[in-house]
Amino acid sequence: LGLFPARLRNAKRTGSRSCQSRSRVGSRERTWLKGDVGRGCVYVYGRDSPAAAPSDLRLVLCTVDTQASEICDREGRKNLFLQLHGDLVRRLEPTEKPLQIVYDYLAQLGFDDPFRMQEEAANSDLSCMIRFYSEKPCQVEQLDRILLSGVYNVRKGKTQLHKWAERSVTLCGTCLIVSSVKDSHAGKMHILPLVGGKVEEMKRRQYTLAFTSAGAQAQTYHISFDTLAECQRWHRQASTIVSMRFSMVDLSCYSLEEVPEHLFYSQDITYLNLRHNFMRTSGAGSLDSLCRFSQLKSLNLSHNRLGEFPESLCEISTLTELNISCNGLHYLPSQIGKLLNLQTFWLDGNFLTSLPEEMGNLQQLNCLGLSFNNFCELPAICEKLVTLDKLALAGNLIETLDLTVLNRMGHIKSVDLRLNNLKRAAADTLEGNKSVAYMDLRDNQMTDLDLSSLVSLEQLHCERNKLRELTLSGFSLRALYASSNCIVFSIWSACVPDWACEAKKLEVLDVSYNLLLELPSRILRSLSLRKLMVGHNHLQSLPPLQEHIPLEVLDLQHNLLTKLPETLFVKALNLRYLNASANSLESLPSTCPGEESLSMLQLLYLTNNNLTDQCIPVLVGHPNLRILHLANNNLQTFPASKLSKLEHLEELNLSGNKLKTIPTTVANCKLLHTLIAHSNEISIFPEILHLPCIQFVDLSCNELTEILIPEALPGALQELDLSGNTNLVLEHKTLDIFSHITTLKIDAKPSLTADSALTSVFWSHGVAEMAGQRNKLCVSSLALGSFAEGVEAVYGMFDGDKNEELPRLLQCTMADVLLEEVQQSDTMFMSNTFLVSHRKLGMAGQKLGSSAVLCYIRNEVADPASNFSLTVANVGTCQAVLCRSGKALPLSKVFSLEQCSEEARRVKEQKAIITEDNKVNGVTCCTRMLGCTYLHPWILPKPHVNSIPLTVQDELLLLGNKALWEHLSYAEAVSAVRHLHDPLAAAKKLCTLAQSYGCQDNVGAMVVCLNISEDNCTCEMHGLTLTGPGGFSSTTTKPATPSCSSGIASEFSSELSASEVSSEVGSTASDEHSAVGLDGSLLPRQERRCSLHPMPPSSIFQRQPSSATFSSNQSDNGLDSDDEQPVEGVMTNGSKVEVEVDIHCCKGKGLELEHPAAEYSSSAPGPEDDSGLVLIIRRQNSVNSNTVQRGVKEKCELQKSLSTCCLYGKKLSNGSIVPLEESLNLIEVATEAPKKKTGYFAAPFQMEPEDQFVVPPDLEEEVKEQMKQHQEDRADQELKEEHAASLPEEFDTAL
């Protein structure tokens, strides 16, 4: 049972690439797979090379215990190869189990269900992530870079004295090898070094190249090729070699197991890169043969899955640099001491816990990389390495920084201890260390730090610790980075520490995101400080400036400042950057007196303050301003005379004020390329289309009515945002003029459909995306306010960081995947949505990645206490925040190295290399993403999923990408937009705030206004009290709202099954006619219920038989009248159909039935009525009850999810859902029937007496038998219902 091979269905199409994207599993294979979850299938591809003929693709059925050797024996192959993510290909060991490898891979991705894993393994799309080959695939481009060879006509020398002769020619490494055809390996060989030489095309002879070596005794060989393509291949590869300044060969990422034999002829090779291969340690061309390179100085063998350190490398005495990182090494051999010339040794990403004593012989070693190993302390052997000046120990298990041991290493200048478990620094003596100049202690757990013994310390990184006290030696200190700590007074207490006074060389000081309450004047009086970052603290004031200071950058955002020092712009003449946003400033200090200002200020950010028009004249004193942000202040006017003097202005942001116009003098700002003035009261379009450099204009959410367009628009204009101007109407001529703009945003014409009206009842959204200083926008949003049948919504945001392809792919496909997954699972649908979307990215997701957040609002019909639920899933740094009762409620988890210690620990344990900029392998800071499969298993697509019920206290749902949440806290984002009624203006404001707080990257924000409250009830109550979950009436009654087709205010309750819902005729007729009882009194029709007030359970109703007649040319069961079987209770009469239905009439507990005095209409609410009368129409069982019940059961299962209904049904005009296969066979809507007020339904009047049901003679007996059986069944049913009746009263109502 272990192995079952299967050919493709059609032998003629075997090996066709066009069919590889389709599933190969047939019914026979599926039957076998269902027997056991341990069974599965793997796809085995042939040699995937364009140069080779297409080979067969075979589907191999196997079990998790099937070994690769069994598959090879059955297929007649020697080996089986595994390729991950379309990249490297390795040979499987005979004992490895291919199917188990696939299942383990899927489990690492995040799949938990064994049956789902079996299904995913059978999907051919998985081949983009994991694929098996029967032969090792080779690409021509890779082969060209490794080895070019062939037999060509060759002539030696520059003159024509020599004749052309046929020779074997090989281009490998750094040399051109020319030899005899017969004795190519044994005869005479000519080796031509090409590094520093040249390669030229001969004009006199077609397809001929001249190869010339470097040096005074240069030699030349002319080689004639047969085709142009071949000549170009050789020319391209040879040009790369001759352009190198030294003899380097790069064979990285080629899946090599051995070095090509011809490479050993290049004896001048000094740098050899074999990174990301599968090099063998023994055999021909293996690592044992590398000692044949006599001049080799640098060797890179990282990521080769070696497991053990090859002792043969210790024989290459010429090595000065060796990189053997990420090879799973647990120890180093003692022979390592033979590498006496070694200067740089990289051992990162292994499992080392100690170093051998023999390493003390490496007296020339100056750089040692031991990051991401398992060291618990500083290696003592480093004391003997007297030339060692850089020690990297990031990502280890060190808990205590022993300064005593570090002091004994008097030669080390740089120490990297990032991402350890450091909790304290200890020193037994007060002896000072005069060598350490650079120390990196980021991302540890230290609460206090005393490095006063490091008297030569110049730069210290201690961000993201828990520091409350910090003591340093300031004699040599030049840069201190201590942001994201808990420092209060530890740096500058009432008595300023001596080291702070001694820091006369300090140039950069970053103490942002701390708890500072004041800033001593000594710091601002520093004559060396050029960059001061004190944002996100509690500063209430700044000390006055008495002397001139060289300060160039000052960040004061997010403090409690009410004013700036009066002499700031007078004493800090070198100031170029000032950010004082998010304070309480009401005025600005004046500049230098005199006609000509000396201010050098270029970037000024003053967003979110209390500035008024009085601050505008001060800005004139800064004529060099390039970027000016004054958003969200109290500006009402901007004087034209002042704006005209800011001639160097390039970016102007005046959003969120009360401006009515932009001065016409903006035309003097010839360098202006960005104008952002949304959320004002501007009614006149500014004269900005005359500016030659204008690129981006945002005038959304204003009061514009018209636009004056010049004859010619500026060619640089790329984006014009005019959305949110409700009174703006653009003519076709204007739109034609704007047609060349890359992005034009205007409001769409309001839709009059019921869907749009319904969507705005419970939620509305606004989206804002800004590219910032990037040339392209790599953020995409998904906003479906009417999802599935309209009762649900889906919102998402995708951030590709530097790529725009993946966010757009996810934007287009993720909603469809969600619909499919909701149908399959009620619990794991959101997680599977992300995992399937990850797979569907295909080849695009191999090298590119994207963060994502997806929010799904669904109608919880199963939980009467909760009307809507919100399910949020995310990967990466895109997040969602819910505003509940004015407070921020985070719904996402940030999967980044800096903010998630669990993920950082997982990545460290899997031996990924985290670079100094906190990125996995230098690529991304995220630990979970969609795409980037080549970084598996460090980067995973499994999302964080959170589901909560929505309540009336929920006001807003905020979505944003990394750039937004890096600059705005959750609380600030909620408080900034909570009072805004326009979600578009709210989203715009969030992006504007992020940009003013220092964001220069792509930023995206989405604001969803939630209105889940009793005020938005769309039930047509007609005076009836709302029924609670248990059948009790509610205490308040809301006005009725007409039903619409989106489904929230649908005709029937979403809790009813398909069998309980009447035909489309019935539901539509009920909208058009009033109901009259048999005694002529008016009966209330079935009320419409919204999602806030679902229909009470149907079990409280008592069935009462009745019947009605409808006009239709099709049958009630959705089948054509010619094809359907007789249905009990349905009497056909030509074009007329009589249907027996149940009308359920009951009175709730404690309710009295009253007859209204006026008729009800679907377009207007009726008079108040306190009765609990509810009418529901049910179909009677048919003769073929088994078939009907089975269909009803399937419908009920599908209707568990509203999205499922959308998958298998289509939405009708009255909001009901029918199966897709019946969509063409429905009973006609009652609007086409004669209108007559004769009952709850409008029964067509029978005009012709001969239009009666005629039974053929041969069927009379059968019909009589069926009718008799029907009467008996109905009598039994009525008898049972009488015994089971629980309500005090019953009403027998006929149509």
UniProtKB/TrEMBL annotation:
The protein's matches in InterPro entries, at most eight in alphabetical order, are given as: Leu-rich_rpt, Leu-rich_rpt_typical-subtyp, LRR_dom_sf, LRR_domain-containing, PPM-type-like_dom_sf, PPM-type_phosphatase-like_dom, RA_PHLPP-like
- Names of the cofactor(s): Mn(2+)
Boundaries of every PPM-type phosphatase domain copy: 764-1010
According to the UniProt entry, its GO molecular function terms are: metal ion binding; protein serine/threonine phosphatase activity
Q: Which PROSITE patterns match?
A: LRR, PPM_2
Q: Where in the cell is it found?
A: Cytoplasm; Membrane; Nucleus
Q: What is its EC number?
A: 3.1.3.16
UniProt lists compositionally biased (Basic and acidic residues) regions at: 1264-1284
What name appears for this protein in its UniProt entry? PH domain leucine-rich repeat-containing protein phosphatase 2
Q: Which organism is it from?
A: Serinus canaria
